[in-house]
């Protein structure tokens, strides 16, 4: 109940812009006493929110905390489902593990797990993911689409487009997508996406989408072995970004594209994805469990499978691989 009242309070501040809201108005709006409103205001201050209080005018938020909090993400959230239920942790092994358990416990679609730090963050094929504290966006989103299980990999591509669009809008940088799940800027990795499925033979129970974004890391923060392959939005844009704002934007873009995908199928997503793809028309090496394949990337199928034409002109369909640009 307390978290629901806090959410209503933050929604009120979001809708008010820079206007003051009186204690009486807030009490009536969220359904509690003026004393309870004051207590909620004090809790927000403890989280790092700066609130201005003026007699006979009320309150307004003038500054949000540098550290991400669930309340800061909710302040200005532009979605109907994604992010309406937020599970926040200071430090976790992996947001995917927590999201999986929440999913098994019946968490609603759109539940988001956010952490300031992952000690065992991971990407595809159980690779470690560098997730230092207070610098990036480490989150997992629970979706429950009414789809056949074989369609689930398409949600990785839906998410990739959403992340690229959010970065473009916030920074004016144009990232590129490397099939199937990497977002690149100037050839260096900025974001990884990990999609995990819980399903029966004919139905999806949940899809958990993990998103790891390098946001405010500076060059000296990276281990030497990552300097040539990874970067951050701060390094590339020259500006420190508001991570909560970025999360809100990613969730808004993802909800829009997810709904579009459910209503109209994969084709509109496919066109968007290919417009951002770094490898289309280029020579690549696809490193697969069964061996390497070299050729030209032609695009993706209507199911999101990569098409690769080898030197003999034969077209291969690549379902899972690491891609190296030549």
Automatic annotation (TrEMBL):
Domain of life: Bacteria
Transmembrane stretches, start-end: none
UniProt xrefs under SUPFAM superfamilies: Class II aaRS and biotin synthetases (SSF55681), Winged helix' DNA-binding domain (SSF46785)
InterPro entries, alphabetized: aa-tRNA-synth_II/BPL/LPL, Bifunct_BirA, Biotin_CoA_COase_ligase, BPL_C, BPL_LPL_catalytic, HTH_11, WH-like_DNA-bd_sf, WH_DNA-bd_sf
Binding site residues for biotin: 118, 122-124, 189
GO molecular function, one term: biotin--[biotin carboxyl-carrier protein] ligase activity
EC number(s) on file: 6.3.4.15
DNA-binding region: 23-42
UniProt enzyme class: ligase
Catalytic activity: biotin + L-lysyl-[protein] + ATP = N(6)-biotinyl-L-lysyl-[protein] + AMP + diphosphate + H(+)
Assigned keywords, A-Z: ATP-binding, Biotin, DNA-binding, Ligase, Nucleotide-binding, Repressor, Transcription, Transcription regulation
Protein family membership: Belongs to the biotin--protein ligase family.
UniProt function note: Acts both as a biotin--[acetyl-CoA-carboxylase] ligase and a repressor.
Name this protein carries in UniProt: Bifunctional ligase/repressor BirA
């Amino acid at each position: 109940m307390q978290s629901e009242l806090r959410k209503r309070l933050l929604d009120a501040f979001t809708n008010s812009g820079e206007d003051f809201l009186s204690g009486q108005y807030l009490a009536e709006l969220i359904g509690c006493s003026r004393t309870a409103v004051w207590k909620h205001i004090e809790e927000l201050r403890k989280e790092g929110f700066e609130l201005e209080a003026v007699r006979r005018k009320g309150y307004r938020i003038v500054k949000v905390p540098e550290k991400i909090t669930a309340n800061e993400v909710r302040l200005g959230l532009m979605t109907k489902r994604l992010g309406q239920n937020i599970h926040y942790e200071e430090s976790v092994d992996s947001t995917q593990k927590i999201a999986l358990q929440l999913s098994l416990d019946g968490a609603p679609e759109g539940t988001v797990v956010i952490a300031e730090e992952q000690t065992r963050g991971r990407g595809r094929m159980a690779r470690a993911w560098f997730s230092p504290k207070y610098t990036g966006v480490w989150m997992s989103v629970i979706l429950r689409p009414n789809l056949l299980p074989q369609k689930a990999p398409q949600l990785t591509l839906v998410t990739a487009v959403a992340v690229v669009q959010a970065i473009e809008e916030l920074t004016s940088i144009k990232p590129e997508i490397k099939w199937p799940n990497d977002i690149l800027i100037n050839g260096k990795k900025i974001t990884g996406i990990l999609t995990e499925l819980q399903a029966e033979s004919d139905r999806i129970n949940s899809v958990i989408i993990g998103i790891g974004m390098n946001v405010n890391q500076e060059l000296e923060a990276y281990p030497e072995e990552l300097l040539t392959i990874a970067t951050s939005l701060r390094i590339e844009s020259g500006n420190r970004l508001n991570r909560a704002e970025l999360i809100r934007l990613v969730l808004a873009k993802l909800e829009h594209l997810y709904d579009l995908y459910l209503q109209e199928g994969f084709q509109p997503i496919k066109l968007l994805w290919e417009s951002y793809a770094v490898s289309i028309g280029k020579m690549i090496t696809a490193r697969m469990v069964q061996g390497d394949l070299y050729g030209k990337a032609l695009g993706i199928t209507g199911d999101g499978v990569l098409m690769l034409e080898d030197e003999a002109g034969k077209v291969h369909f690549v379902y899972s691989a690491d891609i190296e640009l030549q």
